[in-house]
Write a structure and sequence with these properties.
heterodimer; A: about 325 residues; alpha+beta; 60s Ribosomal Protein L30, Chain: A; Phosphoribosyl-aminoimidazole Synthetase, Chain A, domain 2; seven-stranded mixed β-sheet; four-stranded mixed β-sheet; 9 helices; about 25% strand; B: alpha/beta; DHBP synthase; 5 domains; ten-stranded mixed β-sheet; 23 helices; binds fe (iii) ion; binds magnesium ion; binds zinc ion
Chain lengths: ~325, ~800
């Protein structure tokens, strides 16, 4: 891949790569802008820039990740995704074979999700100005009437559900990045969750919150929700699903699995009576097989104090689960 | 010839802890004794006295005012001036308080006084056998306080209206219970009962509890500031059962017994006796007597000191008596909690949380509004008190800040650290340091911290102009301080962790004795460049890396690093605190590089399996969760692991390091120091490679582990002394330079005496803690002084 002089040839090559792997009627229109049929319902829109090292990791690569990440953000609005866009920033000299592989994986992820990549863009930057390839994806989707996902709807007594195990993605990335081998291979959980979410929303339109615990893990996402809603959320450590090999890796690394990123998990906060029906729906999907109720929304915090995230520990204590502040520098030692 | 005596008047102002301690009735009694007229009143500034009489009587009055002061009073200043006007008619009187802003707070909770202890054992008294007996000189204070002024209606005693007999005592200035807010008797006060173990509701709950204890059972006992778990300390099976039921907890158990029994088991020096019998009645760490009967080792695994305390409430006295009547001698009284959670304070929480541990609950209906752990002190080689945990009996007594001009500093709130959290209110030249609250990551402790902050601010009508926080952004206390500063508009000042430790030691050294009679005040020169040797687990450094073995030079205005321990990776971040082997690996890797595994052969038995080791190697190679840190605490953990002391996992903080200290103690006087090297320019850095080489050689040669531990301690002391000598040379510091010692590692009573001796021999003046702990429990005091001084000057 060259920058500058060879622009035209490169652009054509890229078009061939992307056109071949992403092929769908919207993209095939070949315009600068894709024209979509008018949807029924309110529209959600979300965008995410994907930067990951290494570009390929156990269980996925930046291509599939950039599709799943944005589809899941659309799903967090309770919406059904209808189209994606993709913008690539490619570093000069990046091997075309690698780009082809990423595009193939991206196209396959979109096809398997049933959502077209309707439009896109590509820029090549000078060597040293990028880390191989960055992919920004934007998604639009449609929300059924009556669905109002918002942290403002969090209330005392609601249940906190999680669609599966924590920490898989972050540990898979870390093990590949640092050459740390944890025996049995740990795979990223990168997956699209919109089908599972669509079933959940159809059954329980009154779901209060859907949120994917990506960067910063369960603790960052739930702290954000506790703070935004002004409620204390209490987790039950024993109920949080985690693969033994991920738990083992976290123990060895000294990392808290609640701080580790996930790319195929959904947190759902709902009324107590909806918890069991929703868990049944989640477990019927391959992405929700390990779904569990992991906690409960507690009282509204006292005026002037933010909501807190706490956890009943395995030994029966209660600890504060704090944000991860920047780098994980220990506080206590 | 008869001379009519010349009557003159004096106006006397008494300052200090003189309210709520029976000071006015004391004044009243002395004045009436001497036939003087006049009056006494409380106001916002202390006690105000106007008194008339002849010269000798007035002199006698002034002397007895201080000499015979009530036991809980702490007089810090007496000012006397001629009084205007003629003597008032009639006898000396106590008059109503005259206003003024309240600045006196409340006094600490105090152990049962001798008079009350005698009264409950006297069958002729109406409080015979009554577990909640107290008077002006003893009893609950902070534990039952809800608001100011200190008055029954604002305490947990509000639910118990006084009977006529108690009301009469309360109103009589001649009575020991004049204005004793928690006054109570069997007719009107709190009640005791036993639950569980098929307790017979008609039986005497104390006798029934003693029966259970004597039978080897475990009873949760609601005390003054929280629950204890009690069992027979001489019954090895009961002790083992308590350990098993508390799970994952190998912390030493505190023991309670009357003084004569303590003296039969432990070496009780005069200073130790003074501490044990003081109104604060802390747990005192004491070595066993050589001729003492053997105690079950499970009481304090791998420790050579036991924590002893005397009964300090009437309930304890009665329980110890009843236990003794059944042949018992020593009670385990360990904090009533699950593992290392905060102590339970509430009856329902005890029913929910402690019944899995205890066979029965001895409960009462006086609520514990404010959790207050037992204080813990040790005695150093000079016999001085070394505070380890400052809580019941000490907090919230104000500590004078002996820095010139401190009275003019702005009101400052310091938020403290993260573990062993305390906070500090500084105003008018006095610092009120909260009781030990604990690890803020525990939800209960964080809730307590917030509640105590509200209570202390209310008790002292305290509006902070300045809020000081630690430099570590992720401390929960830092986050709270930032939020509070935003909310109140107070000026936020960040204070370096080790600078705060250093100044805490300086301020503490200059404090008049408040903690115990043995503490000695040291003159501190606030203008002279002062050295600080700060050894702890870790704290955020000025350069954004983690520090923990530092030599600083400076003073109140700031301090620069002039020496340090070599940074070594924390293998797995805070996992390095729990698993000592990680520090051994990191230290050996730092000392020997790629070749470390070959060098480690003598200690290989204490390292994990090959898979874990290769993972550790990969983490070190890639720098994954391996932040560098110049920690002194982790160096001690590494040495402990090398000797096989808890290499895999510790159950409580510093467990391995404390076992290492105990192992070294018998050899402390006779061993030499391992060599170290000081390298680095411009920042002198202590490298530990020679120490490790020698230590591994000794292990391979089969030298006794105690000797190795002693050589290690001497080596660390010598390394610090060398680095200090280097700093003195580099910075042309004169003999007589002050050196402040602080940080949790400075509680090591093998290291500190050696270090103190070396520094003294170099002509340095050592400043050390006497009122607040050297660990992070003392941090808030240093933060407050630094920030208030800075805010005053800039
Ligand atoms: Fe510290
Ligand atoms: Mg996004
Ligand atoms: Zn008394
Ligand atoms: Zn009464």
């Amino acid at each position: 891949m060259a920058h500058g002089g060879g622009g035209r040839a490169t652009a054509r090559l890229i078009r061939q790569i992307f056109a071949r792997h992403f092929a769908n009627p919207l993209l095939d229109q070949g315009h600068d802008a894709a024209v979509l049929p008018r949807p029924v319902g309110r529209i959600v829109m979300t965008t995410d820039a994907h930067v990951v090292s290494p570009l390929t990791f156990p269980g996925g690569d930046i291509g599939s990740l950039s599709v799943h990440g944005t589809l899941n953000d659309v799903a967090c609005g309770g919406a059904w995704p209808i189209a994606l866009s993709a913008a690539f920033i490619i570093e000069e000299g990046f091997p075309l074979a690698d780009l082809d592989r990423i595009a193939a994986s991206m196209g396959a992820a979109a096809r398997s999700a049933g959502v077209p990549i309707a439009t896109g863009d590509t820029k090549v930057v000078e060597r040293g100005h990028g880390d191989g390839v960055y992919i920004t994806t934007t998604g639009i989707g449609v929300v059924p009437d009556g669905v109002e996902i918002s942290p403002q709807r969090i209330r005392s007594g609601q249940a906190v559900l999680l669609s599966g195990t924590v920490g898989d993605h972050g540990i898979a990335i870390l093990s590949r990045r640092q050459g740390l081998e944890f025996g049995t291979g740990i795979q990223s959980d990168s997956a699209a969750l919109h089908r599972m979410v669509a079933d959940m929303v159809a059954a329980v339109p009154g779901i209060a919150v859907l949120r994917d615990p990506t960067r910063g893990g369960l603790s960052a996402t739930l702290n954000e929700l506790a703070e935004a809603s002004g409620h204390t959320i209490t987790l039950n450590e024993a109920a949080i699903p985690i693969r033994p090999e991920v738990a083992g890796a976290c123990e060895m690394l000294g990392l808290d699995p609640l701080h580790i990123a996930n790319e195929g998990k959904m947190i759902c906060i709902c009324a107590e009576e909806d918890a069991e029906p929703l868990l049944t729906i989640m477990r019927a999907h391959p992405q929700g097989g390990d779904a569990a109720r992991i906690g409960t929304v507690g009282d509204a915090a006292a005026p002037g104090t933010p909501g807190l995230l706490r956890m009943t520990t395995l030994i029966g204590g209660m600890r504060i689960v704090d944000w991860l502040a920047g780098e994980q520098l220990p506080r206590i030692c | 010839m008869d001379h009519a005596p010349t009557i003159t008047g004096r106006r006397i102002r008494v300052r200090g802890l003189v309210q709520g301690v029976g000071f006015r009735p004391h004044v009243w009694r002395v004045a009436r004794d001497l036939g003087l007229s006049g009056w006494v009143a409380n106001d916002g500034d202390g006690v105000d006295i106007a008194v008339w009489g002849d010269g000798p009587a007035l002199d006698a009055f002034a002397a007895r005012l201080v000499d015979d002061a009530p036991p809980l009073a702490r007089v810090t200043a007496v000012a006397s001036a001629p009084a205007d006007g003629p003597p008032p008619a009639g006898p000396f009187v106590i008059v109503a308080s005259h206003g003024g802003a309240v600045r006196t707070g409340i006094v600490p909770d105090a152990a049962t006084c001798p008079a009350c202890a005698a009264e409950i054992r006297d069958a002729g008294q109406r409080r015979h056998g009554y577990a909640f007996t107290n008077c002006t000189h003893c009893g609950p204070r902070l534990t039952i306080a809800g608001a100011i002024p200190w008055d029954r209606a604002r305490t947990a005693m509000a639910a118990f209206p006084m009977c006529d007999a108690c009301a009469a005592e309360y109103a009589d200035p001649a009575d020991r219970r004049f204005h004793a807010q928690p006054i109570a008797c069997p007719d009107c006060g709190p009640r005791l009962w036993l639950e569980g173990a098929d307790a017979d509701p008609s039986a005497d709950p104390i006798a029934a509890t003693a029966d259970l204890l004597a039978a080897g059972r475990i009873v949760a006992v609601k005390g003054l500031g929280g629950f204890h778990l009690a069992c027979d300390g001489l019954d090895a099976e009961a002790v083992a059962m308590l350990r098993a039921r508390k799970r994952r907890d190998a912390k030493p158990f505190a023991l309670m017994a009357p003084l004569a029994v303590v003296q039969a088991y432990a070496q009780v020096s005069p200073a130790a006796r003074a501490a044990l019998t003081s109104p604060a009645a802390p747990i005192v760490l004491l070595p066993p007597r050589a001729d003492a009967p053997v105690l079950p080792p499970a009481l304090a695994p791998d420790q050579d000191h036991w924590g002893w305390m005397l009964p300090y409430t009437p309930l304890h006295h009665l329980l110890c008596d009843a236990f003794a009547a059944r042949g018992g001698r020593v009670l385990v009284m360990t904090s009533g909690n699950l593992s290392d959670e905060p102590q339970v304070t509430d009856n329902d929480a005890a029913r929910a949380g402690l019944t899995a541990i205890a066979d029965a609950l001895l409960l009462h209906d006086r609520p514990i509004w404010n959790r207050l752990d037992d204080s813990v002190v040790a005695l150093d080689d000079t016999g001085a008190v070394m505070p380890i945990r400052r809580a019941r009996g000490y907090a919230p007594a104000p500590l004078p800040v002996a820095v010139p001009g401190a009275a003019d500093w702005p009101a400052t709130l310091a938020m403290g650290g993260e573990l062993k959290a305390t906070f500090c209110l500084l105003r008018d030249g006095a610092a009120v340091v909260s009781q030990h609250i604990g690890d803020l990551e525990k939800a209960e402790a964080l809730a307590d911290y917030r509640a105590m902050l509200t209570l202390y601010r209310d008790l002292h009508q305290f509006v902070p102009a300045v809020i000081a926080v630690d430099a570590h952004e992720a401390y929960l206390s830092t986050t709270l301080g930032q939020a509070l500063a935003e909310e109140t508009g107070a000026r936020l000042i960040r204070v370096g962790h080790h600078h705060a430790h250093m100044v805490a030691a300086m301020v503490d050294a200059a404090c008049p004795a408040a903690m115990a009679d043995a503490a000695v005040t040291q003159a501190v020169d606030w203008d002279a460049p002062t050295l600080g040797v700060l050894l702890d687990g870790l704290g955020m450094g000025d350069d954004g890396t983690l520090w923990g073995g530092e030599i600083l030079l400076g003073g109140l205005d700031g301090a620069a690093r002039v020496g340090r321990f070599a940074p070594v990776p924390l293998l797995g971040g805070s996992a390095a605190m729990r698993q000592p082997w990680r520090n051994l690996v990191a230290h050996l890797h730092a000392a020997f590089g790629a070749d470390w595994q070959a060098q480690a052969a003598p200690v290989a038995a204490h390292l994990p399996d090959a898979a874990r080791l290769s993972m550790a190697q990969a983490m070190l190679d890639s720098g994954t969760n391996c932040p560098p840190c110049s920690s002194a605490g982790r160096l001690f953990d590494a040495a402990a692991a090398a000797l096989g002391l808890y290499p895999a996992e510790i159950s409580h903080e510093a467990q391995a390091a404390m076992a290492l200290e105990a192992l070294a103690r018998p050899f402390a006087a006779e061993e030499h120091a391992y060599q170290v090297e000081i390298t680095g320019d411009p920042l002198p850095t202590i490298g530990w490679a020679p120490l490790w080489r020698a230590l591994l050689g000794d292990v391979a040669a089969g030298v006794a582990p105690g000797r190795i531990a002693a050589r290690f301690h001497h080596g660390v002391a010598a390394a610090v002394a060398q680095a200090v000598a280097r700093a003195m040379a580099d910075h042309a510091l004169p003999p007589g330079t002050q050196v402040a010692l602080s940080g949790g590692v400075m509680q090591n009573r093998v290291l500190v005496p050696v270090l103190r001796q070396m520094l003294g021999a170099m002509g340095l003046r050592v400043l050390a803690h006497g009122q607040v702990p050297a660990n992070d429990g003392g941090l808030a005091l240093g933060q407050a002084v630094i920030a208030a001084h800075l805010a005053h000057t800039t």
